Amino acid sequence: MDVVLTDDEIAAVALHRHLAWPLPFPTVATDIDHLAAAAARGRRSLLVRGLATPTDSGVEVAADIVGTLEQAASARCVMAWVASVDDPAVLAGSSTVIHRRGGDDVIDLTSAIGIHDFRDIPAADATAIVVALVKNVFDFGFAGPTMPTIRLFVGEVGGDQVLVVSAGKLESGEWGPVGVVIHDEATTWESALVEQALQ
Hints:
The chain is α+β, with helices and mostly antiparallel strands. The protein contains 5 helices and 11 strands.
């Protein structure tokens, strides 16, 4: 199923269905006050878009949307995301998230303004999309003004292994208590490093 949702709408469904959403939102802070406000906006948006109907106890969200988000929330997720080297757990741009289900995956293409495009996709195709994204950053860096502290990260937020990508450089390492600790550096293209970070 293909569906486009906002950060606020995902927060609304997650709160309604008691889902532990596994990732930070680009536009919503993770404290309870901001999440509650986002969920209220999201419920209104789902109603206006016809993706939910009002009930005596609140709203009833369309079953296909609930199913997609429940599958995503319960699956292991790996991602490629733009962040500062000083704080890689805080998104500083767009992200591509793969929710691994075994067989077909759910891919979430998320813009910096918090618009999520969810699609069912074969696992190999999802991996190929991230490899192509990393290759583009490796070859050309980021468009626009030079921002030397911004990188593309590949792996799991807070997971064991992470790949840090910039123009002409792939750095592999792990999450430590004070951020990412780099162990190896490659200045030639190695798609295997990307695939390893996505395993």
